[in-house]
Design goal:
Structural class of chain A: mainly beta
Distance between the termini of chain B: 38 Å
Helix content of chain A: under 10%
Helix content of chain B: under 10%
Oligomer: heterodimer
Shape of chain B: globular
Number of strands of chain A: 11
Largest sheet of chain A: 7 strands, mixed
Structural class of chain B: mainly beta
Number of helices of chain B: 0
Shape of chain A: globular
Distance between the termini of chain A: 37 Å
Strand content of chain A: over 45%
Number of helices of chain A: 0
Largest sheet of chain B: 5 strands, mixed
Strand content of chain B: over 45%
Number of strands of chain B: 9
Order of helices and strands of chain B: EEEEEEEEE
Radius of gyration of chain A: 14 Å
Radius of gyration of chain B: 13 Å
Order of helices and strands of chain A: EEEEEEEEEEE
């Protein structure tokens, strides 16, 4: 069974340019997450989807970040315009529906490493 | 959310057992203890979780103190492939799905 697939693996852009990351979750996983991981830190949640609905986007910087999951499967995270401080690894994860925090297991993709010059 | 405390780094020799400690003195009765690990250039992967009793799976064992204020992840026979950052995380059984990662323990395996 395929895991969570993310692309691209690496992206280098100049500041003020737009960038987009794509995620395909594990089949049947209705819940999808985007995390950001700064160097030497643990991942931090940006947004969580239940099917098409963003149920927790409190940590998403909405002035420049946007995300969508139009058909409840694939998702795209966009930054426009990118800033130097956005350099990080962007991780996507998915999980089965209906399991609360204690029993919920998240499966992560390999991430996209973004470098903003 | 209740917090966990882990050593920044640990070393172990290959083919020896490894005990990774985690303190969670403010754990609540509804918090599960989860462990994830992150191999170099990979996303985190689930290792094991438990509530009160010790747990075993193919990857590791989880030993939970009787008062639940600490736990230990046990790798029975470490290999070079176990070199990773290990995260100890508390997750409320009935609340939202957010995982709050700390900095974890970086485990170095010596050949």
């Amino acid at each position: 069974e395929a895991g969570v697939v993310q692309s691209p693996r690496y992206k280098i852009i100049e500041k003020k340019q737009p960038v987009a990351f794509w995620c395909n979750p594990i089949s049947g996983h209705n819940t999808l997450y985007w995390y950001r991981q700064n160097l030497g830190q643990g991942p931090e949640l940006l947004i969580r989807y239940e099917n098409e609905e963003a149920v927790d986007d409190s940590q998403l910087p909405k002035d420049r970040f946007s995300a969508e999951r139009l058909k409840g499967v694939d998702s795209t995270l966009k930054i426009q315009p990118a800033e130097l401080g956005d350099s990080a690894v962007y991780l996507c994860a998915s999980s089965l529906p209906g399991l609360a925090g204690g029993m919920n297991i998240q499966y992560f993709g390999a991430g996209t490493r973004l470098s903003v010059l | 959310d209740a917090k966990t405390t882990q050593p920044n780094s640990m070393e172990s020799n290959e083919e020896e057992p490894v005990h990774l400690p985690c303190n969670h003195s403010t754990i609540s009765g509804t918090d599960y203890i989860h462990w994830y690990r992150q191999l170099p250039s990979q996303g985190p992967e689930y290792v094991i979780h438990g509530l009160t009793s010790n747990v075993n799976n193919r990857m590791a064992s989880l030993a939970i103190a009787e008062d639940r204020k600490s736990s230990t992840l046990i790798l029975h026979r470490a290999t070079l492939r176990d070199a990773a950052v290990y995260y100890c995380i508390l997750r409320d059984w009935g609340r939202d799905d957010k995982i709050i990662f700390g900095k974890g323990t970086r485990l170095h395996i010596l050949p």
